[in-house]
């Protein structure tokens, strides 16, 4: 895994966690639509998995568990990225990496903030990424889990 691939995992995980949250909220809305007269009767007297609302509840629990696991992975990844950036000697490189991989700023915005052309910011960012010290045991997220 390259330094850039390692650093980009943070944004992938954040998007996946947000997507899981969106899906959980959709399912909660669906359950609200299913509720009505006799909801409790339907919920407690139906066979497990028979009613749409029971299936939705089970799916919510699964997604919440998956989301919690991904949040733990993100926390570990954030700690590794922060520690790596903090270990770097050059404060300029630290700022570049923080702007790009912590704040997710585009290259153009980084260039403006650091008073340089976009092409210069891009080149200097690539240099900083190359200097980033990879952790001994880096958090890795499989590509198929990111989609």
Give a structural overview.
The chain is mainly α. Helix 1 runs antiparallel to helix 3 and helix 3 runs antiparallel to helix 4. The longest helix has 36 residues. The protein is elongated, with a radius of gyration of 22 Å.
State the main characteristics.
single chain, 147 residues, mainly alpha, elongated
Task: Explain the layout of strands and helices.
Blueprint lengths: L2 H32 L4 H7 L6 H36 L3 H12 L4 H7 L4 H14 L11 H4 L1
Helix pairs in contact: 1-3, 3-4, 4-6, 5-6
Main β sheet profile: none
Q: Which structural class do you get from the secondary structure elements?
A: mainly alpha
- H/E series: HHHHHHH
Distance from N terminus to C terminus (CA atoms, Å) equals 18 Å
Counted by DSSP, the helix tally is 7
Percentage of helical residues?
A: over 70%
* Quantity of strands, as a count: 0
Mean pLDDT: 86
Assembly status: single chain
Shape field: elongated
Instruction: Output the radius of gyration.
Output: 22 Å
Q: Outline the low-pLDDT stretches.
A: none
Strand content: under 5%
